[in-house]
Amino acid sequence: MQPLVESVFYWSDLFGTAVFAFSGVLVAGRLRMDGFGVIVLAAVTAIGGGTIRDLIIDAERVFWTANSVYLWVILATALIGQYIAKLPRRLPWYILPLADAFGLAIFTIIGTEKALSYGTSGMVAVVMGVITGVAGGMIRDVLAREVPMVLQREIYATACILGGVLYTCSLALGITPLLATLLGMLGTFILRIAAIRWHLSLPAFSLNR
User: Fold this and answer.
1) Is 47 within 8 Å of 72 (Cβ atoms)?
2) Percent of the chain as helix, strand, coil, to the nearest 5
3) In sequence order, what are the residues at sequence separation of 6 or more whose Cβ sits closer than 8 angstroms to the Cβ of residue 148?
């Protein structure tokens, strides 16, 4: 069972990498970047968060340097994504948000689990899960000279926090890793989809002068 679970996670991780890379492609297209700019935005969106995480927890190797498949997925997505984005018949509007929410859930739990495996506390592991899920998008938005979405009222990082807390608390209560993983992923996914469906957002901080 364990090898099967690891295989499912690996392929889900690659899927999330492609989805995040495609979001970078769309931003690059909106800003009319050249091919190199497309690849750069696709890459930082897809692997930026995981890279920061691995550097912080002092992993032996940053994950994509140990497995170059991630880079090939990003390159393929950047090239194919430019063609898909120009198709006259687009995918249904809800496909990308659903895929993005799934990728966010996967990245969050992978980041949290990896941090725990390196001996961090539960709170630090949750932070690493959030960084894995959102830091790449933040770098993308900064390069695009936009205010990062996670720093606005959008419920995005909050969904990562919920998933990470569910995962770490489940493990602390003795729940099996597989069930803890499912609970964490569902928490992230459901909250993110609910925020999109019902336009949920966090209250804004404003100073009235």
Assistant:
1) no
2) 75, 0, 25
3) 137, 138, 141, 142
Six-digit token pair at 152? 């606005």
pLDDT per residue as tens digits for the range 29-69? 999 999 999 999 999 999 999 999 999 999 999 999 999 99
For the chain, what is the mean pLDDT?
Answer: 94
| CA 183/CA 187 separation, integer angstroms | 6
Residue type, 182: L
Taken in order 146, 24, 33, 55, is the CA torsion positive or negative?
positive
CB 45 within 8 A of CB 24: yes
How far is Cα 39 from Cα 194, in angstroms, rounded to an integer?
31
Q: What is the pLDDT of residue 59?
A: 97
Task: Kindly report the number of other CB atoms within 10 A of residue 93's CB atom.
Answer: 7
Look up residue 16 and give its two tokens.
């999330």
Residues in the chain: 209
Residue 99 makes CB contacts below 8 A (sequence gap 6+) with 15, 19
Q: What is the pLDDT of residue 1?
A: 47
The alpha-helical segments, DSSP class H, found in 31-176 are 35-56, 63-66, 69-84, 95-117, 122-143, 157-172
Q: What is d(CA 196, CA 66) in angstroms, rounded to the nearest whole number?
A: 35
